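Milestone M4 deliverable, item 7.
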Amino acid sequence: MHQSKLDFFCKLGYGKQDICKVLENLGQEALEDDVLKELIRMGSKPQALENQAQPSPLKLVARGSCSASPGLKWLGEDESDSSDHLRPIVIDGSNVAMSHGNKEVFSCWGIQLAVDWFRERGHTYIKVFVPLWRKEPPRQDSPISDQHILEELEKQSILVYTPCRKVKGKRVVCYDDRYIVKVAYEKDGVIVSNDHYRDLQNENPEWKWFIEQRLLMYSFVSNRFMPPDDPLGRHGPTLNNFLSKKPVLPEPKWQPCPYGKKCTYGNKCKFYHPERPHQVQVSVADELRAKIKVPLNLGKEEEQRNRSP
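Output delivered:
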């Protein structure tokens, strides 16, 4: 009897200690209602109600997600993807600034436009190289506009000054193009410039291939930075694939054969023949042999039948 009552109240969620204490006070033959009233009077509560009464700790949930852990994982994936699948960008600051200033003014606003364009695409590694002497006050023979932009980009660790110094009143400038090509080559990135760097191509054969394949030209249209949609020509990759480490290859589109049914290349023809979409392309010679072979075999069978008694 004691065990059955103990099991009954345990199923209701009460603790064994409280149940045993009540049964000792009321006796083993006490009614279930009396035991329940005594448990309530003692302040004992089922475990389910105790769990509900305890306030659960607050959990920060990412906006747009149902739980905390998937949201955090999603944010981590976005951060890794932005640096993994997009190539590093190395900008020829002097070339971009002079291009935006119509080759008359060193326009720092042009550099800012280029940096913002790549930022909006999600590129995390962006470096701009500018000679150190551009920090100096502008002169009549080398005017500069919006020079404060250089300081802001330097604070953001985007702009890098190439070194220079003065020797006996003359400025000794290091070759900034070599910095640009070297960093882009080591980072396996993209060079943003309209310069072809022919002298550096002749210096290093590896740099020659890299400059030919990773140079991104551009234009400025009404203060808008616009790289071409086909950086390597009509038959080259798209701009998205050019700026991606893992380009998405387009599905092959079969071009119809210009000769149509008169084509004599057979299975060696690289074009598409719509007249036989579900058939394996066979050369014309094989088709003729197949047609001739059938009547020859029939003729041989008839001769054998006539010769047999």
